[in-house]
Design brief:
Blueprint (H helix, E strand, L loop, with lengths): L1 H30 L10 E4 L2 E5 L36 H17 L23 E2 L1 H5 L2 H8 L3 H10 L1 E2 L10 E3 H10 L2
Antiparallel strand pairs: 1-2, 3-5, 4-5
């Protein structure tokens, strides 16, 4: 019996030290190498934090690029999706309402040209990024309201488009918060 209990206790103690002390310290050390040193990547304007680059935020004014809709109203403490399937009548009504709202605020855009991500919430409800196509479909509205040329706005979208990770993994994305901060900086 002693031959079985003693190794079990030693293994438990070793794993307790590794998983409770060593592993968290290694992860905290690696996080210090990331942008924001493990505290999140903040976006600042004139020394004031205006948001976090990795958490989606609501931009409802027509003079800004709209974010992806959120099923949790952009509350980072309650991340999650709607859990409604694509055939759920309530979900379909919500998506149709988002399409109708988008078309009202973006005249001249056809329903078929609206990227799906602009009318459906992400799984987390906090997606901070859009595809370049989803930002470009909004350029005409913003150009008209702000009096900026569409060429300049498309150039701004290009500047803030990040390619796939090491050129291979994932799609190209545009961080909406960073793009809107840069948009405000245009005189």
């Amino acid at each position: 019996m002693k031959n079985y209990i003693s190794p079990g206790i030693r293994l438990t103690l070793v794993l307790l030290v590794i998983l409770s002390i060593v592993y968290p310290l290694v992860i905290a050390g690696v996080a210090r190498l990331a942008p924001g040193q493990g505290k999140g990547e903040t976006v600042t304007v004139n020394g004031k934090v205006v948001g976090y680059a990795l958490v989606g935020q609501k931009f409802a004014e027509d003079r800004y690029f709209n974010s992806r809709p959120s099923a949790v109203e952009y509350k980072a403490d309650g991340s999650g999706g709607s859990n409604k399937g694509p055939s759920n009548p309530d979900y379909l009504k919500t998506v149709q309402a988002r399409i109708d709202t988008f078309l009202v605020h973006n005249p001249g855009i056809n329903k078929i040209d609206i990227p799906t991500e602009l009318v459906t919430a992400s799984g987390s409800g906090l997606d901070p990024d859009l595809s370049p196509a989803a930002t470009r479909v909004q350029v005409a509205r913003i150009a008209k309201i702000r009096g900026i040329s569409t060429e300049r706005l498309n150039q701004l979208v290009d500047e803030y488009t990040r390619g796939p990770l090491i050129g291979l993994f994932g799609p190209s994305t545009v961080n909406v918060l960073k793009l809107n901060v840069a948009l405000d900086a245009i005189k």
